[in-house]
Amino acid sequence: MLMRQQTYSLSPVPYISDHKLRVNIIRIYHDTPANGTHFGRFKTTRKIQERFYWPSITRDIRLHIRSCIPCLQNNHQRKKSPGLLKPITPPEGVWQLVAMDFHGPIVPSSREGHKYIISITDILSKYVITKAVRDCTALTASKVVIHDVILKYGTPCAILTDRGTHFTAAIMAEIFKQLGVKHIFATSYHPSTNGQIERYNATMDAKIAALSNDRRSDWNEKLPFVTFNYNTTIHATSNNIPFNMMYGRSPLLPFDYHNGMVSLPSETTYVHELNKYLSMITNNARDHILNQQTKYKIRYNSNRSNPDYKIEDIALIKNIHTRHKFDIRYEGPYRIIRKLASKTYIVQHMAQNVNKHSSNFHTLDSANKEKYIHQCVISTIQNNMKVNVYPMLQPLTSFSIYFINHTTSEPTIDYLIENATQSKVFSINTNNNNVSKMRALIQIGSVHNVSILMLFECCSLPKQDSHLF
Questions:
Q1: How far apart are CA 183 and CA 100, in angstroms?
Q2: Residue (of 101, 91, 137, 106) closest to 121 by Cα position
Q3: pLDDT digits (tens, 9 = 90+) for 278-325
Q4: CATH class (in words) of the domain with range 97-251+271-288
Q5: DSSP label at 235?
Q6: Strand, helix or coil at 163?
Q7: PANTHER family of this UniProt entry (predicted)?
Q8: Which residues contact residue 206 at a Cβ distance below 8 angstroms, ignoring those fewer than 6 apart?
Q9: DSSP-based helix, strand, coil % in the chain, nearest 5
């Protein structure tokens, strides 16, 4: 047996020439509970070098650890998240593109029962509209859009929102369709897409807390003051005051000096000067926003990877629902089966017949190439049926409940089967208060005149010895 004197060993160590034996040694000193426990590259390499030697020992250990699924699923990733920044290009004018979002639930709620704040921000001027509301339903969002946005400021060309159920509901789609407003959805689990309004929410929280009472129960009363001062203060990104860009004039604040003089220019002169002023501040704001975006993009993209994956690559998907310290951080492995966009893919679990809609993840291939762990977007898709979490059912049309047991007639069952077959979206375990406590194996609630939603609930089950079984 060939021996070699190692730097980290007092006595010579054996030379390992057999490839299979090398693999087994690495597995023993990295994977097993007794000798390895999945420590990192430095610790594992040092431990093996004290006992064995072969020329490619460092490289082999590094590749093994890079492709170790338990390590990839559970280790913290301290590198920058992948993907280059692609800022939203500011529109040509105000009120062409606005962003909308719910903020909350806020604890404690206000004395009037408000738990959420709905915010609407103009992307160019940075002008913000806020309103304290009791819930975050689609009906509430639609009322705010109509009464607090459109009837006061006019109809925007497009509205950017996240993919919350309050914004994806049919009522919102119908309102936007009737008003001719383009609805743009932010990428799921990527809050930076709607980052402008997220930053305002963070600013608003601190200011409201500073003004509110000790119990924070009057925060809804302080909200208009915070919003007004935000709109009448210069914005660093646009280098302009949102109020000025929105109304074409500087605001007169409560304690500002006023000399009592009123100027009465001719209508033609006023319109000309107003248009000239608005054009100037709009162009300046847009140029300043683009300049700030370029600077931030350079800083953000520095030392950040921009991976591109191929069909049949093996991937691990980030688990966004971790609640406990020992929950795995990455699920898988999955195989990429379809590419939807530049960074969006459909992947399939290699052990289960379940597809997931994902982007930005870690890949492993047969050659153990060096890839990286990345975050992802997960939206379960199985058998062409998308499973979402919906709020408690509040039907806008008539609502019927069917109780399925041994007395149910055949025509009723055929009718329900036909409706279920034609349905495209299913909501499971909604805990609907409209469902009665009548004993039935399955209780089905269907919404008439919509034909897209069927509710299946197993509730109020009889005892196993009951004749209903």
A1: 11
A2: 101
A3: 888 888 888 888 888 888 888 878 888 777 788 888 888 877 776 677
A4: alpha beta
A5: B
A6: coil
A7: INTEGRASE CATALYTIC DOMAIN-CONTAINING PROTEIN, PROTEIN CBG26694
A8: none
A9: 35, 20, 45
Q: How many residues does the chain have?
A: 469
Provide the token pair at 375.
Answer: 């975050």
b/e code 382-406 from CB counts within 10 Å (16+ = b): eeeeeeeebbebebeeeeebbbebe
Nearest 5 degrees, angle CA 152-CA 158-CA 163?
110
Token readout for 467 is: 């004749």
Are 81 and 47 within 8 A, CB to CB? no
Burial (CB count within 10 angstroms: exposed 0-12, middle 13-18, buried 19+), residue 45? buried
Q: What is the reported pTM? A: 0.59
Residue type at position 49: Q
- Residue 262 CB neighbour total at 10 angstroms: 6
What is the rounded distance in angstroms from the CA atom of residue 212 to the CA atom of residue 220? Answer: 9
Kind of pairing between the strands at 128-133 and 116-122 = antiparallel
Evaluate whether 218 touches 407 at the Cβ level (below 8 Å): no
For residue 310, give every residue at least 6 positions away whose Cβ sits within 8 Å of its Cβ, in sequence order, or none. Answer: 336
